[in-house]
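Quick log. Single chain, no ligands specified.
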Amino acid sequence: MATNGLSVSIYDTLQNRSDEFERHRDVPIIRSSVVRAECRDDLDWVASCASEIAELCGDLVVVQGDTYSALAGAHGAVRAGAALAHIEAGLRSHDPLSPFPEEMNRVFIDTQSDLLFCATRTDFDDLCATASVVDKKSFVVGNTVCDPIFQHRDHLASAATRPNGVLVSLHRRENYRHREQIIKSLSRLITNFPGTEFRLLKRGLLATSEAAEFGANATMIGLTEHLHFLEMLTGSQIAICDSGGILEEAVTLGVPVVCLRRTLERGRLVEGVDCIDPGAVEGPQLPLLIERLLSPQLGGRGPLRETFGDGQSAKRIATLILDHLDASIRRNEGGHTDPDRDQRVLVPFARSKAAESPGPVKDFRTDQRSRRFTAVASGADACDS
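-> predicted structure:
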């Protein structure tokens, strides 16, 4: 967007601690002045960030996902009267407590958004079933979380030739009440498969754990760059996680996933995804799944799956935003475009880490009765039928 004449800024909420990420040289970062430790609670922090965003935003605020940072961006846009675009719109678990508060956040953001970018047709259908999309523009574009995988596909190819071991990442807030059972189950699992390396990400439920607690075949992995994480994921036989983003990445890479979630908004009916209720994690299902998934695999993996995206999502979204802003100028100025008009876009950013198939988008069709805009896609996965 910045290369097409828009003034784009990133509002960094500092929700996650990291100082480096890639951005265009003409896109400045505005650091939040809100100190989370000084806020009464999460919603006080959201309100304080929203006040700053409302002062900074121009024509459009773009938010991604369902974090508190995205919620702050939505509130700031509404307060300032700016248009709001939501990336990952329509995602639903249909359970307000799982994930919490994400399900609550995403529903609110969708109701306030002018542009809704759904990753899959399933998400679009859920959006239409749970929020009014009249007078909104809704698109199926794939998920940007898959873009880096396609961008670095050649680099990741070597790690996929001989996958080994299990990668574990657990951080969901609602799983903390099951932490003791999950840790015990992991310990037994690692002990029962002494010839398999288990790589545990030292964060979330495992932030205070040490490798020695699990056994000689366990390794703790600290904070790492996203590309390095993708290398580890690509080189694993299995991923055990409770993260929707990691699930999407693993499915795209062809890595089998065991997801510790009571409900699942991503990966429903997608091949290669097994879901286990964290409350039942001490049962026989987990070790049986791991034993089956660790069985000898013939050769390397096939081509990248386009279940959640085809690597072009960010480009599609940028094009659609530019089209929307151009059309807005024409409406506001009676069909005359002012080339000197300074349109500003603000992107609240949480610095989180950062596959149903959109496939290649061929054209856009409009349902005139409801003014819904959807991207016509091909090559949909089974869950999109």
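The longest strand covers residues 83-89.
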